[in-house]
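Review form for a predicted model. The reviewer records the input and the model, then writes brief findings.
Reviewer: anonymous (R2)
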Amino acid sequence: MTPTLVRHHSYADTDTPVDPGTRARDWAEIQERMLAPLYEAVYERLEVGTGTRLLSLGCGSGLALLIAAARGARVTGVDTDSERLALARARLLPDPASDAGTPPGHARLVDGDPSAAAPADGAPYGLITAFSPIGCSSGDGERLVDALRSAVPLAARGSTVVLTGWGPPERCATAPVLRVAGRLSDGARAPRTGGWRPWERDDLEEVAFRAGLSPDGSGRVACPFGYADMDSAVRGLLSTRLFDAAVLATDQDQVAKEVADALHPHLRRDGTIWMPNVFRYLVCTT
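Model under review:
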């Protein structure tokens, strides 16, 4: 298991909410890599490489883009999280004066709505990916439909669109941990949207239908969540934003403590946390 790259100090050590920059780094350094097998499986199936023009919706801190660029793809990422996007820029667009060089391929990053990601040269995208798995946050399918309606006009007719979501709950060891978010966000102070909800089998197909896409195959990928210790696990999971409504309904300390309690069944003798999960992807055409 790869150790995390951040300092180890607990959220529960302070009543002060974690700033967005810290949480974005937790995502980039702890949690994002858990989905790397999903990215690799999709790229392998679709033979992503030189000649691929890729638009990534919700690109976050850019790991999926970096993997695609390393295969020779021309990549564009769009996200509304400026903190995560800043980390993506550091990964994909290094300072020309540095010795880091430029990653393979061509990268462009856009802050805001997908409609702002129109290719500068006018050539349409051939592949659109949505690697932020839906199915846990109330309204996430609705938001993805809106993003797709903005993005699909930028792609060529007959292009490929990939949607992703959680696999069956019985095959996702993280599911009981995520239920903490639902339980804590049921109070009167919880927002009407953004809280946790249990995912359903046809979530991806429903999004595809509403966005005017034609499903053309699917797959499942094992993406175990492995953490160096309990603190890394709590930090990583809270960086997903799936617990934001719970934090608003209660407080940061309570959420962190209850997530840690839910993680205890997955604590191994060496102090690491290991949770097998399965994620699902749906391949569609425009």
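Findings: The first strand starts at residue 53 and ends at 57.
Further findings: The chain is about 35% helix and 20% strand.
Recommendation: see findings above.
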